[in-house]
Amino acid sequence: MLPISNRVINLGIFLSCAALLATAYYFEYVLYMDPCPLCMMQRIAVLLVGLTGLAGFLFGGNLIARTVFAVLIVLSGILGISVAGRHAWIQSLPADQVPTCGPSLEYMVDTLPWAEVLTVMLRGNGNCADSHWSFIGLSMPQWMLVWFVGFVLAGLYLLLTTKKTKG
After folding, report:
1. pLDDT tens-place values along the chain, 167 residues long
2. CB 40, CB 121: distance < 8 Å
């Protein structure tokens, strides 16, 4: 059995992220499900993982580049795990413990400094507790948690096999 090349894995990571983002935009613009602040942060993490996968596919020709891209995939995936995990946790809280709903993202961007907008987004709010969709018993944040764990595992595989292969 031939091992899968690092370039093919990076391409798979990029295509998976592109499909996840396309799905997110489908839910937002076709099904009219507005994303909460934690959903937006998860999109950013998916974008980071995907762009790193694309860079690894296009420019991962030497050992240093492959190592850097693998580490960036792992770090971006860990960011995604932390945000999706927090989101799933907020959705699991009893109604009386859910954080209060906050202002819209557009309002926060217009009125608050970027550092405070980022802090508020990472904290989440009552909007993040709503679960409008599930598939085989898992909500969107729980599915994203599964995807991010997969990305981290793929990044670790890339990191561990980087020294053995040439692309």
Report:
1. 556 789 999 999 999 999 999 999 999 899 888 888 888 889 999 999 999 999 999 998 889 999 999 999 999 999 999 999 988 888 887 777 766 656 666 767 777 787 777 776 666 555 677 777 778 988 899 999 999 999 999 999 999 988 655 55
2. yes
Distance between CA atoms of 147 and 139, rounded to whole angstroms?
A: 13
Residue with the two structure tokens 């950013």: 44
Report the Cα 115 to chain-centroid distance in Å.
20
E strand or H helix at 149:
helix 140-161
Helix axes 6-29, 140-161, angle to 10 degrees: 170
Question: What one-character DSSP code corresponds to residue 163?
Answer: T
Distance CA 113, CA 90 (A): 25
Structure tokens at 130: 């709503």
Contact 157, 8 (CB under 8 A): no
CATH number of 6-161: 1.20.1550.10
CA–CA gap between residue 132 and residue 101 (Å, rounded):
16
And the tokens for 7? Answer: 């370039």
Q: At 3, give phi and psi (nearest 5°).
A: -70, 150
Q: Which residues pair with 134 in a beta bridge?
A: 139
